[in-house]
Design goal:
Layout lengths: L3 E4 L27 E4 L13 E8 L2 E5 L5 E6 L9 E8 L2 E8 L2 E10 L6 E12 L2 E13 L5 E6 L2 E10 L5 E7 L5 E8 L39 E6 L6 E10 L5 E8 L5 E13 L4
Antiparallel strand pairs: 1-2, 3-4, 3-18, 4-5, 5-6, 6-7, 7-8, 8-9, 9-10, 10-11, 11-12, 12-13, 13-14, 14-15, 15-16, 16-17, 17-18
């Protein structure tokens, strides 16, 4: 099957999406965007396809490995150096809880324990332990978060347990896609707003076959399937507004190359104003045809 190329001009966010073979060339408005292969396109790191099962093994610089039962075992976050050793996140599972531990070299950086609802499998509380190392010792900071969902299973709020005004609020549109994340500080003041668009620069909306939680939102883990429903479509643009700091607005669009089955092979991130290429992220999978080992 031949991939078709599609020019994109304005925007896009972070996600994987794809499909059968829907591709057409769009005229660019401004700025001029390079051609990108597009095809059209359930949820998670392992697809529920009845004929061909895809398991995500590489996402950008991250390499994912799994336990024998299919649960996520480890994420290696790129290749390190002597000065900056490779970081790893390792996962362990207990009855109604998951623990993720992120280490760099011999030092533990972050440990998160997620408590899961017995009927939903969704996290309702998490405990974070942040480790900071000094020449003469180490300090530990601990944070507790609570999670609330709507009646459809989408995350509504992630808030500090002991400071409820310190929170992130999530808005999903009628199509089931994350459209906005609003972050408040302890004084109940908005400090960040991130918006997501799925139909720009044209109405070429693509279904996401193996969605992750966006790293542009405040999900603590992109890979664990415990934060409620994910977006259904491939995000095309993300605009992040900071109401403090020196970088008030970050505006990016993304283009994707899809394989013949509609899964992302490569994601390209561009600066909205200049169309400058910011990053290229490859995706790799373990593919198994059902019925064939």
């Amino acid at each position: 099957m031949n991939s078709s190329f599609q020019k994109i001009t304005a925007v896009v966010g972070l996600a994987l999406s794809f499909g059968l073979v829907s591709c057409k060339e769009n005229s660019l408005v401004s700025p001029d965007i390079p051609q990108v292969t597009s095809t059209e396109a359930t949820n998670n790191l392992i697809s529920p396809d009845p004929f061909k099962q895809y398991t995500l093994t590489k996402h950008g610089q991250a390499t994912l490995t799994y336990q024998a039962d299919g649960r996520l075992k480890q994420v290696m976050h790129g290749l390190g150096t002597l000065a900056n050793p490779t970081e790893y996140t390792e996962y362990s599972y207990d009855n109604l809880s998951i623990k993720s531990t992120r280490t760099m070299g011999a030092g533990k950086k972050l440990e998160i324990t997620y408590l899961l609802g017995p009927n939903t499998g969704r996290v309702y509380e998490s405990i974070e332990k942040h480790y900071t190392y000094y020449i003469k010792g180490m300090s530990l900071t601990q944070l507790h978060w609570l999670y609330e969902y709507d009646n459809k299973g989408y995350l509504k709020t992630r808030r500090k347990k002991n400071a409820s005004t310190d929170r992130s609020e999530y808005t999903f549109n009628a199509a089931g896609d994350l459209s906005k994340v609003t972050v408040y500080d302890i004084y109940d003041v908005v400090v960040q707003e991130v918006t997501f668009a799925y139909d720009q620069p044209s109405n070429d909306i693509l279904t996401d076959k193996l969605p992750l939680y966006s790293s542009w939102a405040t999900y603590p883990d992109s890979y664990l399937p415990i934060f409620g429903k994910t977006s259904k479509h491939l995000v095309k643009r993300i605009t992040q507004k900071e109401f403090r700091g020196v970088n008030p607005v970050v505006d990016r669009f993304f283009a994707y190359t899809l394989n013949a089955d509609g899964y992302v092979k490569e994601e390209q991130e561009f600066e909205m104003g200049t169309a400058a290429l910011v990053a290229v992220r490859p995706y790799e999978y373990k593919v198994r045809t059902m019925g064939i080992q």
